[in-house]
Design brief:
Blueprint (H helix, E strand, L loop, with lengths): L6 E7 L6 H9 L6 E7 L6 H6 L6 E5 L6 H11 L4 E4 L5 E2 L3 H11 L5 E12 L2 E6 L8 H5 L12 E3 H5 L12 H10 L3 E14 L8 H19 L3 H17 L3 H11 L5 H12 L6 H10 L3
Parallel strand pairs: 1-2, 1-4, 2-3, 6-9
Antiparallel strand pairs: 4-8, 5-9, 6-7, 6-8
Helix pairs in contact: 8-9, 9-10, 10-11, 11-12
């Protein structure tokens, strides 16, 4: 493979000095050598700088922010500083397989999909050093409809590699989006560019106590903001709009807001569909997901 193309890897971090060596080493071990690793220290108060200084590699660049601005803005700062022809991302508690960069670059070169702007990949999830989940995307090409329908795409930042032109065109992460910033970013990318993916897992996602705290209030707010932001797109396709609303109802119900789920079901989809009717029956017959029956039924509904 020709090594003339440069890849910028953006790694935001905040008080995760104990996890950084694993992430950094996974970049150092890449089979593709022409990269720069831009570590954006998002106002850490631990020994993050000391840990990074121990790595003696000119390709590692360190940006220290005086205050905590949040991961989306930290990524944006790194993207502005990036010199690469392609840009990819890494979270401080995850790691790449050693052929991640090479495989994604190769697909950019070999893919038959026109107007390709972003390449994703599969993932392995680990807990306590044991792999317990594996997933690979299924949608490629123009993925805007499944993306807006809240289908599982592979939009997480560690999986994405984008062309530099996307940054040059001013597409960045929205720091005002309280959650799901990767989804929001990918929607705006896929308004202009097509999507492809490497058919294998190239990223290890680590789950552990005290990390990756999921704030359901922020998730709900993000859903509501995404609807306002992309309502004009959602209303262009009745089925896409319905699926987005049903996903939002599902989120309300899952966090014990059954009345809000029922209300949105009626107002958000003001017409009859069989999907809507089945969700209505479910919400009427169950108050929560405490029972095994309710969990089995909702898993079936989510596949319709």
């Amino acid at each position: 493979m020709n090594f003339d193309v440069k890849v910028s890897i953006i790694l935001p971090t905040h008080n995760r000095a104990h996890l950084l060596p694993r992430a950094i080493n996974s970049v150092l071990n890449q089979t593709y050598p022409n990269w720069e690793l831009i570590i954006v220290d998002d106002g850490s108060t631990d020994n993050t700088k000391y840990i990074i200084d121990k790595f003696n590699d000119r390709r590692i660049k360190y940006i220290q922010l005086k205050s905590n601005v949040g991961a989306p803005e930290a990524r944006n700062i790194g993207m502005v500083q990036a010199k690469g022809d392609f840009i990819t991302f890494l979270d401080s508690d995850d790691e790449y397989y050693n052929n991640k960069v090479e495989k994604q670059l190769k697909l950019f070169r070999d893919s038959s999909i026109p107007n390709l702007g972003v390449v994703s990949c599969g993932r392995h999830d680990f807990r306590n050093k044991k792999k317990y989940f594996e997933w690979t995307p299924t949608y490629r090409g123009n993925i805007l409809k499944p993306l807006l329908s809240k289908r599982k795409i592979g939009s997480g930042t560690p999986f994405l590699m984008i062309k530099r032109v996307i940054v040059d065109e001013g597409i960045f992460f929205d720091p005002d989006m309280p959650a799901g910033q990767d989804y929001d970013f990918l929607v705006r990318v896929c308004l202009k560019y097509n999507f492809d993916f490497v058919e294998e897992s190239l990223v290890k996602v680590h789950h552990h106590s005290g990390e990756r705290v999921y704030n359901h209030e922020r998730a709900i707010l993000a859903f509501e903001l995404q609807y306002k932001k992309y309502r004009y797109l959602l209303l262009q396709d009745k089925s896409v709009h319905e699926r987005f609303i049903l996903k939002q109802c599902d989120l309300y119900f899952s966090y014990l807001q059954r009345d809000r789920a029922l209300q949105l079901l009626q107002t958000g989809i003001p017409f009859f569909t069989m999907r809507k009717y089945l969700w209505f029956l479910f919400f009427k017959n169950f108050k929560s997901l405490e029972s095994l029956k309710s969990r089995i039924l909702i898993s079936l509904l989510r596949k319709i």
